[in-house]
């Protein structure tokens, strides 16, 4: 009885040991499977990062490192000798490695502004045009109306972002600003308010970071 019991006990141990071996074997297979899945996931992650990098490079493939810019002040009261906004725009562009190929001042006149924008955007040495002035709400502020008629494509995000950033400085007064931008003859045209602070905000925060990218895309074949 005792021997049978011991024998039976021994059989249980062997059976239990076999079960443990199977269990350990399953764990090993499970570990291998998890390892394989992890390597596969890492590989997929690497491929995804590589694709993102390729997309980013392709998106900026046509960026222009240095652009030729026409800077125009729209004002019936200022002169080029008294034009702090225009002076700042010119200096900021040149400090960033761009070239100011034209610097002009014209009065607040619809036809003259439109003719100017059309002429400058169509020049071979001009990749972009920046105007300063005439974007407010007084009767003679007609820069947006005159230039917008020339837009092949409007860039609404420029004015939206400018007013968002401007709100942080001047509060709700920014609703009086009608800064705008668009593409004319494959050249981006940016219309800024006439104050030096507004010019600084628009150039530093938006135009300098994006002018090379936009000019490259707009002129892409």
Shape: globular
Mean pLDDT: 83
Q: Helix content range of the residues, please?
A: 55-70%
Question: Helix segment count?
Answer: 6
Give the termini separation: 97 Å
Task: Give the C-alpha Rg.
Answer: 33 Å
> Topology as H/E string?
HEHEHEHEHEEH
Describe the structure.
- By secondary structure, this protein is an alpha/beta fold.
- Helices cover 57% and strands 15% of the residues.
- It has helices at 2-59, 84-95, 110-121, 143-148, 156-170, 196-218, and strands spanning 68-74, 99-106, 128-132, 153-154, 180-184, 187-192.
- It has a 6-stranded mixed beta sheet, sandwiched between helices.
- The longest helix is centred in the N-terminal third of the chain and has 58 residues, at 2-59.
- The radius of gyration is 33 Å and the shape is globular.
- The N and C termini lie far apart (97 Å).
């Amino acid at each position: 009885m005792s021997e049978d019991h011991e024998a039976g006990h021994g059989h249980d141990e062997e059976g239990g040991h076999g079960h443990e071996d199977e269990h350990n074997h399953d764990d090993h297979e499970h570990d291998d499977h998890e390892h394989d899945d992890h390597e596969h996931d890492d590989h997929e992650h690497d491929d995804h990062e590589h694709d993102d990098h390729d997309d980013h490079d392709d998106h900026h493939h046509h960026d222009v490192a240095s652009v030729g810019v026409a800077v125009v002040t729209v004002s019936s009261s200022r002169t080029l000798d008294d034009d702090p906004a225009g002076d700042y725009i010119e200096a900021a562009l040149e400090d960033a490695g761009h070239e100011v190929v034209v610097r002009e001042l014209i009065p607040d006149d619809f036809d003259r502004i439109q003719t100017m924008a059309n002429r400058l955007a169509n020049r071979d040495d001009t990749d972009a045009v920046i105007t300063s002035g005439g974007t407010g709400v007084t009767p003679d502020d007609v820069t947006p109306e005159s230039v917008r008629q020339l837009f092949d494509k409007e860039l609404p995000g420029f004015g939206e972002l400018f007013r968002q950033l401007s709100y942080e400085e001047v509060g709700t007064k920014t609703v009086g600003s009608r800064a705008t931008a668009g593409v004319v003859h494959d050249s981006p045209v940016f219309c800024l308010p006439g104050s030096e602070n507004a010019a600084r905000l628009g150039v530093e925060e938006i135009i300098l970071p994006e002018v090379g990218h936009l000019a490259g895309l707009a002129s892409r074949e």
